[in-house]
Amino acid sequence: MKYDFDEIVPRRGTNAIKWDMDTDPEVLPMWVADMDFRTAPAVAAALQRRVQHDIFGYATAPKAYYDAITGWFRRRHGWQIRPEWVLHTTGVIPALSAVIKALTQPGDKVLIQTPVYNHFFTSIHNSGCQAAESPLVYRDNTYTIDFDDLERKAADPAVKLMLLCNPHNPAGRVWTPAELHRIGELCLRHDVVVVADEIHCELVMPGFRYTPFASLCEEFERRSVTCTSPSKAFNLAGLQVANIFAADAALRARIGHSLQINETGEIGPFAIEALIAAYDEGAEWLDALNEYLHDNYRFLREYFDRNLPQYPVLPLEGTYLVWVDCRASGLTSDELETKLREEAKLRINPGSIYGEAGRDFIRLNIACPRKLLAEGLDRLRKVLKR
Known about the structure:
The chain is α/β, with parallel strands linked by helices. The chain is built from 14 helices and 14 strands. It folds into 2 domains: 17-39 and 283-384, Aspartate Aminotransferase, domain 1 (Alpha-Beta Complex), CATH 3.90.1150; 45-281, Aspartate Aminotransferase, domain 2. The protein has helices spanning 17-20, 41-51, 63-77, 92-103, 118-126, 147-154, 177-189, 218-222, 231-234, 249-262, 269-281, 283-307, 333-344, 370-384; strands at 28-29, 86-89, 109-112, 130-133, 137-139, 142-144, 159-165, 193-197, 224-228, 242-245, 321-325, 346-347, 349-350, 361-365. Strand 8, helix 8 (218-222) and strand 9 form a beta-alpha-beta unit. The longest helix is centred in the C-terminal third of the chain and has 25 residues, at 283-307. The chain is globular, with a radius of gyration of 20 Å. The model has no long low-confidence stretch (mean pLDDT 97).
């Protein structure tokens, strides 16, 4: 293999949230969504060149930054973004918060599909809004959309936005063009702006394809906002870089003003260099990464089939976050999280943080060398088999 994803790179003691939040050095983390792999060599080389300059003042995004973004989405996803649509910011969570504050008033409602990324709730509540939940349907070991319920919720005049998670975290679904079309059409009918969190868009398993929501038609493009970042795919979360795509000039102006008010629109010199290198030179590395992640997922599925068949593992279409049905344990996800941490020294994410619909599930991060994944699964088995 050209890229060594089996290499175990020590991260404890580097101020990594994933590894250093626990003071007990024996705890193995399989929780927060960052990876235990080195970033793409082209990204590392670009950062090293920038470090050699020895001056790290305020930065401005050059034309090459916008060219890298537009070129990547055109080549990789068949979506022609215009440079003027792009607003850069420090992360997708600040982006979502800025968009919500720009396009709602306190007391408005924001539609979400639960279980869903926990920071959706935080961003909504911090903006003085209420979450309108349309639970996904869990049946036959996968999730589908209840479009009747979604339409009923969207028809509420208080609902102004829908936060769309595409691909979906934690359900692992990569929404199909047909599903996205139905979402877009019902949101248009009820004048609901779609805000698409597509941060996991590059992490898609074989046999599935990510479709940018806004790419489906001009109307969706005009009545939506897309939030993206290279941070998940290229392991750059600590560099704090993300982008908001807003084709509609009026929406874009309101969002830009919100970024200015909250002072989250400036990015640093390392963020700029990393993004350019990732999008211009990182495609081959990303393809290899996705192959390795898929092999990790297959390893996990086979492990559960052999050792823990009573615990269904949901299909993973996208992301590197595996959703496991733990109802057979007789414990809630919070109880199970505590038990795993205290007895097995394994940290996972309890499904309850993604809404009430997730209370019987846990989320496992498999973006790590296979040896660490195997160790984590052995620790998990010792608790779940009791």
